[in-house]
Amino acid sequence: MDEKNIKSALISVFSKDGIEPIVKELSKRDVKIYSTGGTYNFISKLGYKVIKVEDITNYPSILSGRVKTLHPKIFGGILSRRNLNQDIEETKKFEIPSIDLVIVDLYPFEKTVQTGSSEDEIIEKIDIGGIALIRAAGKNYKDVTCISSKNDYSEFLDVFIKKEGSLSIDDRKKFAINAFKNSSSYDRAIYNYFNNSKDNFILKNKKETSLRYGENPHQEGSFYGNIEEIIEKIHGKELSYNNLLDIDSAIDLISEFKDEKPTFAILKHNNACGLAIRNTIEDAYKDALAADPISAFGGVLISNSDINKSTASAINDLFCEVVIAPKIHQDAMEVLKGKKNRIILILKNFPEKKFLIRSCLNGFLQQDCDVISDSQEILSYPTLKKPNKNEIQDLLFASKISKNTKSNTIVLVKNKQLLASGTGQTSRVDALNQAINKAKKFNFDLNGAVMASDAFFPFPDCVEIAHKAGISSIIQPGGSIKDNLTIAYCEKHNLSMVFTGVRHFKH
User: Fold this and answer.
1) How many CB atoms neighbour CB 126 within 10 A?
2) pLDDT tens digit string along 389-426?
3) Catalytic: 269?
4) Is residue 507 among the annotated active site residues?
5) Global pTM?
6) What whole-number distance in Å separates Cα of residue 405 and Cα of residue 421?
7) Considering 139, 173, 353, 440, which one is annotated as catalytic?
């Protein structure tokens, strides 16, 4: 029962890519091949012997191909238990041939949806026979090998050749697990299309990528989704769970500045430790690094502009895990590739995120993404003193960083350069003191700098501390029952403050 020699195969695939080498090896071992429709024609044109399914069923393909393999002689051949006398007798009685291998590649339902096809076209890409074949073969994995996607072709072929046409029970079970995973994802995509809702959004992403490990080496990790739609990996080691979290945070942050002048950000543990806008990307990088060259060690670097050779040379002096940019010049690429493990990514698109999902208790939490990017249009001015043009630019710059930093957070900015942040603190006062101390550590002058807070100030203490440190203007959501005290302090000490009316907690 353990080892099963493959003597017959049913092949019914949408995509023919990768089928020829399999058919070649099957034919070399005299495996009887059954097929139908386009797959039959494909195999025949290759010159290999293949039997029409219709010759077994004595029934033609009907309803414009909607019904081809759905017949007892096909499913009986897949589902019959080879060690059960009753099944053996019934297959002989009804002249049902045994089928040891089923290879299926389903109609591309989800891709058809994404291309904006008509409803009729989409409906016709709901695979019926293929999904039934997968379930039947997966169910009977003790006797049948089920290859349910072209993604498994290469692995199957390697095993088939290595084991000279036989597969073990472990091999068959592994492919069966893949089969049910693929069928489940396929059904989920159909459900999501018909339901047209955000329910079970996490399950829409059918493609699974195994990661080196999870957050720590003793944890397993996987990514679900089509990552290649967003980034292209050019160089370096395989992406890890932590890499992906940092990359996601980096792309979210730089998206706030995608239409700005050259902007460079450095992140560590999902938080910005440096960010600057300058006339050149090299200057932006150098000023981003200046905010915290210690935290930048082992960080993720991202640019909204092309990286040239001079910028790459400057980056090369820093040990960093990941470099991301929309384009990297060829001579710059050669410089960056000098570190063999450094991950180099091309940012192809910004992800269109709609929902955020995370596990919680014995279920999931789901929420809409925070898509509001603070702008001058939403600002209100509670203080008599108004910020000047440069201060408004810095305030909005700081607010965008604050939005993408772990709460509680305080961000200090001057001349479109991040000076320091206080991140993930249990009190807003602690976050502010952390930011001030960090700015002083790297010799930044806070006089004339601005401050952003991701949530309102429950007391005027933060405003007082900021004022004594040299801060000239403040941006915050407002909405505290003690806003009047904070405003009064600003009025008394000639500070300007603006309200956004939007809280940007990030837990």
Assistant:
1) 19
2) 999 999 999 999 999 999 999 999 999 999 999 999 99
3) yes
4) no
5) 0.67
6) 9
7) 139
